[in-house]
Each structure stands twice: as structure tokens, then as C-alpha cells.
Design brief:
Helix 6 links the parallel strand 5 and strand 6. The longest helix is centred in the first third of the chain and has 21 residues. It is built from nine helices and eight strands. It is globular. It has about 230 residues and is α/β, with parallel strands linked by helices. The structure holds pyridoxal-5'-phosphate (PLP). Pyridoxal-5'-phosphate (PLP) binds next to strand 8 and helix 9.
Length: about 230
């Protein structure tokens, strides 16, 4: 893929974000673009970085570590399912700034412990299984409030909001009820006094609908980079 093609993909995505943001009565500053670089080559990551993309999402710890050696000044976001035995490697990466996928107390304790060891704090989002599908990771919506209470014990973990993945859908419109449900959960919890500024929802197929429903972080891979390679 040549640089003209990458540039036009970037323009398209940015333009679609802008239009969706305007439809939701907000401004582009309100929605962060997380470029999902999993299984993508370094050249493409550099290309987007040079054009001002700041946040890059990875879903495998090992892959993030490898890429972080090759490319500096990136703000990495961990977006995949996180195994507890990998947390110690992830927290050593100072440029990994946000974990989108906190979904259990055991994982939270390990993240807190490793953050403390590395003398840092780490921002996290709570992954919510809003669709109730068995195949999906994430907490049941009803358990989120209690989980937030418990997380206050952990000094090195800073909760910034909620994340979800909509079920695989044919048309983006079908994802709307799921995004709307997560936005409502966030609203309800905020009324109870919890601080949850971020809502991470929306991927290549459904990010415009997600923005219309209040997303503040869209995680976009394919629309920017093209099809994923088998190996980065
Ligand atoms: C791969 C992935 C994405 C990006 O998916 P695309 O459809 O390529 O935009 C977003 N979020 C998570 C959690 C992912 O694993």
C-alpha cells in the first residue's frame, strides 16, 4: 500500500469522525482516535505517527513490547484480553498509558501490584459485556458499580471510564442499542458520583454510530491500515 492510499484512508476516517462528532453535538476534541496497529507493519505505524496520530492500540503484550523497541514517542493503549501473567511485562512499558480491558478483580490487583513495582500509576477502563454474549469478555453491567467501589482500594489504578465491544453485526445501525446501553450505564454511574469521563466504543464497522451515542475513544484498525497481516 503506498502513502497516497494511507493518506486517503486517514482523511476518510478523520472526516467521518468529524461528521459523526458534529451530529452528536460535540467537537473533534471530544473524541480520540486510537489507531489499532495490531498485526500491522512498523512503516504504516510511523506514517500515521508522523501525521499526528498519538494513540496506538495493541492487543498482545509481546507484540507491543517488540514494537515499542522499534518506535518511540507513541502513547500505547492495551485493548485486548489481558492475562495476569503478562501484566508485569506490560507495566514495564512506560509509554503504555491506558488499559481498555480491565474485567476482573484478580486482574486489577495484579495491575496495581505491578504498577506499584514500577513506581507508576496506570489508567484503566472497565470492559463491560453489554451484549451478554458468552463469548465476550467483560463485566456484567450490574456488577460495575460494586467493582468501582472495590477499585478505590487500589492506589496505583486510576479508572477513567468504560469500554465495550458490540457483537459482530451486519449493519452499523444494529450496534446502536449496545452503545446506547453503555452510554446510559455511564450516565447512571456518574449520577451516583463516579468519575467516568471516557467511553471507549466503536471500531471500523461501527464507529460513526458509536460516536453518535457518546463514544470518546474509537478504536480503528482496518479502516486506517487496511487488512491485517498474519505477522507484523
Ligand atoms: C482489533 C480490534 C479493534 C479494531 O478492529 P477493526 O475492525 O480493524 O477496526 C478494536 N478493538 C479491539 C478490542 C480489537 O481487538
Amino acid at each position: 500500500m503506498n502513502s497516497n492510499e494511507l493518506q486517503s484512508r486517514l482523511n476518510l476516517v478523520k472526516n467521518s469522525i468529524k461528521e459523526a462528532v458534529e451530529r452528536s453535538g460535540r467537537t473533534v476534541k471530544d473524541v480520540k482516535l486510537i489507531a489499532v496497529s495490531k498485526q500491522q507493519v512498523l512503516d504504516k505505524i510511523s506514517f500515521f505517527k508522523e501525521r499526528g496520530i498519538v494513540f496506538f492500540g495493541e492487543n498482545r503484550v509481546q507484540e507491543l513490547i517488540e514494537k515499542n523497541k522499534e518506535i518511540t514517542d507513541i502513547n500505547w493503549h492495551f485493548i485486548g484480553h489481558l492475562q495476569r501473567n503478562k501484566v508485569k511485562y506490560l507495566l514495564r512499558i512506560g509509554s503504555c498509558k491506558l488499559i481498555h480491558s480491565l474485567d476482573s478483580w484478580r486482574l486489577a490487583k495484579e495491575i496495581d501490584k505491578q504498577a506499584r513495582k514500577n513506581n507508576r500509576k496506570i489508567a484503566v477502563l472497565i470492559q463491560v459485556n453489554i451484549s451478554g454474549e458468552e463469548s465476550k469478555f467483560g463485566l456484567e453491567p450490574d456488577l460495575v458499580a460494586g467493582f468501582l467501589d472495590k477499585l478505590q482500594q487500589l492506589e496505583n489504578v486510576e479508572v477513567k471510564g468504560l469500554m465495550t465491544m458490540a457483537p459482530y453485526i451486519e449493519t452499523p445501525e444494529d450496534a446502536r442499542p449496545y452503545f446506547s446501553r453503555l452510554a446510559q450505564l455511564k450516565h447512571k454511574l456518574q449520577l451516583k458520583g463516579y468519575s467516568l469521563p471516557e467511553l471507549s466504543m466503536g471500531m471500523t464497522n461501527d464507529f460513526e454510530v458509536a460516536i453518535e451515542e457518546g463514544s470518546t475513544m474509537v478504536r480503528i484498525g482496518t479502516a486506517l491500515f487496511g487488512k491485517r497481516e498474519d505477522r507484523p
